[in-house]
Specification:
With 112 residues, the protein is mainly alpha-helical. The protein is built from six helices and two strands, in the order H-H-H-H-H-E-E-H. The N and C termini lie far apart (55 Å).
Amino acid sequence: MSVSERTAYKNAILRAAARSSDPYFHAVLYEALIDIQQGGDLLLMETPYVEPFLLERAGLSEWLRIGCSKATVNATGGVIGAVGPLSQQQVHAARLLAKLYVVKHRCEISVN
């Protein structure tokens, strides 16, 4: 099988997988894509599950739930609501999430 045929089959499989409405299936698929270093394929998937998956894997879902604007400095200079330290897995997921926002043109920058 040629490289172009393999790519065509892989893309067809990913398109079929993207149609699933099972969040667990998507999580397992995304984990597998990351494990085999195919994050680029993950970023191209048009599903509502990618962003929440990456937020959870990066350890950011709870932080965003409480609202990043609620992060404050305490009396000892520590930031309450700060994220970190992050594991390598979390950093990788956060990088993929940032790339997702760039790819999807969803990165909102507010200047005060």
